[in-house]
Amino acid sequence: MKRKLLLSLISVSTVLLYGLNKPENEAAEKLVPLYIQFINQAGNQPLQLNTGQYSNSSGESFTLSTLQYFISNIRLRNSNGKEFVVQQDSSYFLINESSPQSGKVRVNVPEGEYDRLYFMVGVDSLRNTMPVGKRKGILDPANSMDNGMYWGWNSGYIFFKMEGNSPKAPVDPTGQRKFRYHIGGFGGYSAPTINNLKQVAIDLPEQGRIIVRQGSQSTTYVGADILKIFEGKTSIQISEHPSVMFSAFSVNIANNYCNMFFHHHTENR
User: Which residues of the chain have pLDDT under 50?
Assistant: First the structure.
């Protein structure tokens, strides 16, 4: 009897120990790669830096020399209404039009069918205030400063940067008619300041839903229409606002650019 009891206790202990030490990939839900491809465009035209000629809603012509923005905090909703949050450390990307490969990002999600995509434009306050040593990869302030996406004087990331030339912009000290929009601000460290963090939700139509399966590849394409930056709640004119950075007016540009994203199409292979 004692021997049977001892064997039973050993068996139970073994099961418990295996459960506690079970490999993470066995204990967690199986994850599969999903690709999100960002396509920058101007209206129906593909975006071309330096050479593309565009016109905003005020009829102002312009060219772009720079377009960069941070995408972070990615979530998806499946057809049952359940949301999956991509692991935080794997959910920060810098989309840089001058570096085409940056437009395709990879995240790992459970198998399933998804009908809504969420993400943030910008870098959340938690990451902005973390010790520098804990901010790796694209969030390393040194890397972000190399990309021109970090304010050293303000200790914060630039969420969205667009620069270009327009005959409607005033002549600057270099003799050029440049306009510059550098938008950031996460709400402040110890006192409230500008908060330009923007959440985006994109509904995927039935024929454009993401279907993630082992052994297959799913890519959803997200369009970004930069003309929307000049229209929305506030009409933005280059002639009146050729340079917008850390100022109250930057909120208007952020309110506009969060509406520039839309579902382009999805490929499930």
Answer: 1-27
| CB atoms near residue 237 (< 10 Å) | 15
The per-residue DSSP string of the chain comes to -HHHHHHHHHHHHHHHHHHHT--HHHHSPPEEEEEEEEEEEETTEEP-TTT--EE-TTS-EEEEEEEEEEEEEEEEEETTS-EEEPPGGG-EEEEETTSGGGGEEEEEEESEEEEEEEEEES--HHHHHS-GGG--GGG-HHHHHHTT-EETTTTEEEEEEEEEE-TTSPP-TTS--EEEEEEE-BS-SSS---B--EEEEEEPPGGG-EEE-TT--EEEEEEEEGGGGGSSSS---TTT-SEESSSTTHHHHHHHHTTSEEEEEEEE-
Instruction: Please identify which residue in the block is written with the tokens 């905003």.
Output: 56
And the tokens for 158?
């630039």
Strand partners, 16: none
d(CA 57, CA 75): 32
Checking 131-136 for CB contacts under 8 A at 24+ apart, the result is 136/89
Pick from 249, 260, 230, 182: which is nearest to 60 by CA?
230
CA 75 – CA 112 distance, rounded (Å): 14
Task: For 87, list phi and psi in degrees, rounded to 5.
Answer: -50, 130
What's the predicted TM-score (pTM) here?
Answer: 0.87
HSE at residue 220, side-chain half, CA atoms within 13 A, is 25
Tens-place pLDDT, residues 146-155: 889 998 776 6
